[in-house]
Design a protein that fits this description.
Oligomer: single chain
Helix content: 55-70%
Shape: globular
Number of helices: 7
Largest sheet: 3 strands, antiparallel
Distance between the termini: 10 Å
Strand content: 5-15%
Radius of gyration: 19 Å
């Protein structure tokens, strides 16, 4: 029995806490035009050239993705196909991303030594990693430079990937020895 198997509740609770903290950290920014000769006063930071921005938390991505879905459906006739595809993918990836938090909470509350919640947890963590990486790639495509300011999304995606790898190792050791 490994250390991970003995202290599963503790490290799962720690991962859940870190996922929640990174979900509340900066995932995007609200850009405003401020000419370069003027300073950006807090909470705004200088992003690039004539633009300042205020950091927005990860929960913001959920609200924006719901808004994008509804506006895309309402404006489907007026939108070109590449823009429609980008909006749908952005929304889909943003909606997949918080699955790691929900799955970690579920497995902490309802696992009780059963193996079936762990396999579902692995699947949801995998979807969350795909959503997080896809979200980051689409944000990089849409917003360009300035990805440094959305460090919360990077940490969230890396943490979800680390949780997926650790859970996979624990699941393999449980099925091998148990």
């Amino acid at each position: 029995m490994t250390w991970f198997n003995r202290y599963t509740w503790g490290w799962r609770a720690l991962i859940l806490l870190l996922l929640i903290i990174t979900f509340m950290s900066p995932w995007g920014y609200d850009r405003i035009h401020v000419p370069a000769q003027y300073d950006c006063t807090p909470p705004f930071i200088r992003l690039e050239g004539d633009f300042c921005g205020t950091p927005l938390p990860g929960i913001w991505t959920l609200f924006v993705s719901f808004g994008i879905i509804f506006t895309t459906i309402a404006e489907a006739a007026d939108v070109t196909f590449p823009l429609l595809l980008t909006r749908i993918l952005y929304s889909l990836f943003a909606l997949l991303t918080p699955l790691a938090i929900l799955s970690s909470l579920f497995i902490l509350l309802f696992s009780r030594g059963q193996s079936w919640p762990q396999t579902r947890h692995l699947k949801l963590l995998g979807l969350s990693v795909v959503g997080g990486v896809g979200f980051l790639l689409l944000v990089a495509l849409l917003q360009g430079p300035g990805l440094f300011y959305i460090w919360g999304a990077w940490v969230y995606a890396l943490l979800a990937l680390a949780a997926f790898l650790v859970e996979t190792a624990v699941w393999q050791s449980n099925t091998r020895f148990g």
